[in-house]
Amino acid sequence: MVIFRIGIYMKKILLTFLLLIAFPVMASHIVGGEFELIHLTGNSYRLNLILYFDVLNGNPGAQDPFADVRIFRKRDNFIMANQIRLTFDREERVSYTQPACSKGEIVTKKLYYTTTITLPPEQYNDPQGYYVAWERCCRNYSITNIFSNAPPSSQFAGQTFYLEFPPVVKDGVPFINNSPRLFPPLNDYGCINKPYYVDFAGTDDDKDSLVYSLVAPLNTFSGDALPPGNLPRPGPYNPIQWRPDFGINKILRGAPDLKVSTDGFLTVTPTLEGLFVFAVKCEEYRKGVKIGEVRRDFQMLVIDCPKADPPVIVGKKSTDVTFPIPNANSLSVSFANTTTDADRYIDVKISDKDVFKGTAPDFFSEKIKLKVVPINFKRKAGDTWFPESSATLTNGVDSIKTFKIFFPQCPYLNGPYQVGIVAYDDACSLPLTDTLRVTVNTQPPPNSRAYFTTQKLTVLQLTEGDPLLTLPFQAKDNDLDDLVVSILTDGFSLSNYGMAVNFTQQKGLVNGQLTWDPRCNMFDFTKRTAFTVRVLVDDKDLCNFGDPDTVVYKLSIKLPGNADPNIDTDLTTATNERKVSIQKKVLESVSFNVTGKDLIDNDFLILSAKGVGFNITDLSASFPQVTGSGTLSSLFSWNIKCDKIDLKKKDLYTFQFIVVDNANKCRFYKADTVDVEIKLLPPDNAKPKLLAFSQSLVSITNSNLEYRLGQPIEFSLLGTDSDLLPSKDNLTLTLISASGDVEPTGYTFEKAVGQSPLQSAFSWSPDCSIFKNQVFENNYTFQFRLADDKCITAKADTIRVNIKIKDVDGSDKDFYLPNVFTPNGDKYNDFFALEGFDWDESGVDFNEKVSLPKDNCVNTFESVKIFNRWGDLVFESTDRKFRWYADNEAAGVYYYRVKYSNKEYKSPLSLRN
Predict the structure, then answer these.
(1) Residue 7: which residues within 8 A CB-CB, separation 6 or more?
(2) C-beta separation of 805 from 814 below 8 A
(3) What angle is formed at CA 418 by the lines to CA 417 and CA 421, rounded to 5 degrees?
(4) Using CA atoms, how far apart are residues 851 and 842, in angstroms rounded to an integer?
(5) How far apart are CA 680 and CA 653, in angstroms?
(6) How far apart, in Å, are the Cα atoms of 137 and each of 161, 299, 613, 844?
């Protein structure tokens, strides 16, 4: 019996099998490799080049004593560092996952080249970043999936080593970054029709996110061992040349083919023998933004391996007598919090058919390993690795091994958690496996929750300049556990707004206070004046389940008032007029004074101007910026010249003048603006005129029209132009926009082209389909444009017709339900009806007009039914203008029901003779 204990936290098992290999044929030396850029201190970095060298087939003379690399700027391929020499540092052999599988076909060594470089922030600050490159030829000459012929063949295959890195400063702040560190490769090979897997996930010293993908390996520009001058050329770099029927989606032509997950797990089931090259790109992200990239090229050897059977694992509860039948690959187990450590376990049994192969006395033996991996949770920081157990199976009494798997007192989740118990054999080149999925439901030990003794919610408003605010709080834990205090805000930093939280603690007790200094000359409150601070307390119970208690402080500050500055011009005709519009023709000039004032506070002011959508200086306009206290004035002047204006592109210019007060105590930004809109008019061209008329020839131009559904909507548009000489302008009348609460459809309007007067008609007969989402009143705007074709100075007129369409009023507020009629032949109330009749139940005519509610899009009349006192139907009609004469019906009380599509009306009805 082998005992296997699980630690208090789960560790993710990393399968560090990488695929850098060489093929035992006449070939060159490059197996693959990559760059590393590691931050040391300040602006100093260590740049490493790692090259994997084919020992069996490589020429020993091809092992370089150094590598000269270059750094380029990504934006324009500018050479930032012309020659950086990395000197040879050391070498080491690349090992096998299972050394016993080696027959000497693969021997690879790892060569390290390194140097220290400086990246000055004044040089390496381009937002698009930089890249390091080195070119070296050649790869092995007998690769199956790419052309890799010996030079001088044009189908050569070298490798360009490539790494991208970000600027070392962003927004004036140092931006420290380390490139990802890829896991060391292993000298493993693949087997035909057997799944191959390897966990390629590397690490990042900065905790950046790493995303992996397959890419085409990069070639060199030539088949020379090194490029001219031994220095790499700038990118972009060409990919290698795939052989027929191979490519980025058919790298090994596997079933399935080679894939890598975004978190770096490589899988493939090869179908062909041979040597295959591929590359993995690792992209580095920080806060969702890509900041770097590193590539590693690989070679993978595939051979026809001996057939092997995987191990078989089954499990049972400690209370069960026997194991289940094979292939029972799941197990559920529960432990109460009273279960002792010695009883919190399951038994597992492992067997493997391979031990029965061979003949006596040379029966096979099988080395097995047992690991436990998390399934529905991740290990926590500081968690220890799960232990690993091993054993040897042989033909006979040792053909089966059993293990005890002990579980911790604390569950990993607040509920059931799952682990996979994986059995590995020693098959070549990678172990075959079987997995038992175990669902564990462990009751945690009892624990009292930490709590605050002070009030849970505090709402306060301070006035700027108030004394320092102190708000004490206290938290306790009845179990006297150590307490953990956390501070959360609604998106602000405490220190930026004069706040701080301090506390002292002992076993089961925390005493603390929130302080606030509300002085606006010390802290800037212009961006926010309301704050929410949450103080959380949780206990360090045995299982560290988070269930904190919270106190909330909702704080705000009332800031002192500050008078707004005021701005005015010579052109304004009313006080506080915010916009002035004037017209000028090209070649005329315009000038006026602008004045800014702050007579109440006499604060320091800045008076300036800008163009809305253009630069004032581009027009040769002038408005000198002035500063001072109290009152400021400056002169605007503009000589409107033809070479600065293109009326076909723009004829309306808005100049915005602004006076700013931002030097007050609380740093309020106070400003006042006035816009001067200058319409530039060309000479000798009158603007065409567009009008809209109703059918009764009443002008509805820019009017708001209201219709009830069912009324036809019709109006005419008339365009005129007073230009007669030298000839009439050609006019075009169009509908340029149609919008509304619901997009309008089904209307009719035809574009019109001709000379003045120019007419066209608009018509629309909408139905209930225009109403959506139970809204039965829609607003629409139709915008029409009349344009002339005057060259250079063409003009146009635009109008809007606003249309409101309401549903028919189906109100029943005036609907009267009559309850008596006298069909006695006296011509008074001789029949019963509900549409357009007077009723008189006492012989006196009250002149009450009876009328059913009108049909509309919400409610429509469907039927009327009349029943006798026994509930028998005596009359029915779907005509709202029905008549019931009560022929052959006895006097008495009847009941009728009027049904609409969404409503019903009911009433008794007396029939009197």
Answers:
(1) 383, 384, 385, 386, 387, 408
(2) no
(3) 145
(4) 20
(5) 8
(6) 11, 15, 56, 116
Distances (CA, A) of 567 to 629, 630, 666: 14, 12, 22
Highest mean pLDDT, choosing among 14-23, 401-410, 468-477: 468-477
User: Which uninterrupted H or E stretch holds 756?
Assistant: none
Across the beta sheet with 196-199, the strand order is 196-199, 265-268, 259-260
* Token code pair at residue 247: 């490519």
CA–CA gap between residue 591 and residue 612 (Å, rounded): 18
DSSP 444: P
Least confident of 264-278, 479-493, 823-837, 851-865: 823-837
Q: What is the CA radius of gyration of the chain?
A: 44
Write down the H helix ranges in 813-871.
Answer: none
Residue whose token pair is 């209370």? 319
Amino acid occupying residue 759: Q
From 193-197, 573-577, 634-638, 781-785, the region with the lowest mean pLDDT: 573-577
Side chain identity, residue 505: Q
Which tens digits make up the pLDDT trace of 75-111? 999 999 999 999 999 999 887 666 666 666 678 889 9
d(CA 672, CA 595): 11
* Sign of the four-CA dihedral 570, 575, 578, 584: negative
Three-class SS of 761-826: EEEECCCHHHCCCCCCEEEEEEEEEEEECCCCCCCEEEEEEEEEEECCCCCCCCCCCCCEECCCCC
All residues at 6 or more sequence positions from 345 whose CB lies less than 8 Å from its CB, including other chains = 318, 404, 405, 406, 407
Between 798 and 100, the higher pLDDT residue:
798
pLDDT at residue 462, rounded to an integer: 94
Both tokens of residue 316? 């049972």
- Model confidence pLDDT, tens digit, residues 431-462: 888 999 999 999 988 889 999 999 999 999 99
Average pLDDT across the chain, whole number: 87
Query: pLDDT-based confidence at 701, cuts 50/70/90?
Result: confident
Q: What are the pLDDT digits (tens) for 122-176?
A: 999 999 999 999 999 988 888 999 999 988 899 999 999 999 999 999 988 999 9
Q: Record the tokens describing residue 479, joined without a space.
A: 């179990």
Longest Cα–Cα distance in the chain: 130
Q: What is the pTM of this model?
A: 0.50
Q: Say how far apart CA 367 and CA 425 lie, in whole Å.
A: 6
- For residues 40 and 746, give the distance between their C-alpha atoms in angstroms, rounded to a whole number: 71
Report the b/e string of 631-670 with b at 16+ CB within 10 A: ebebebebebeeeebebeeebebbbbbbbbbeebebebeb
CA atoms of 257 and 241, how far apart (whole Å): 19
Cα 450 to Cα 421, 479, 538, distances in angstroms: 36, 9, 6
Instruction: Reduce the DSSP state of residue 699 to 3 states and report it.
Output: strand
- The reported pLDDT for the residue numbered 463 is 92
| Mean pLDDT of the region 809-821 | 87
Please answer whether residues 674 and 577 qualify as being in contact, where contact means their C-beta atoms are separated by less than 8 angstroms: yes
The CA distance from 619 to 634, in Å, is 18
- Residue 5 reports pLDDT greater than 50: no
Closest CA to 468 of 421, 502, 508, 510: 502
Q: What are phi and psi of 6, to 5 degrees?
A: -95, 135
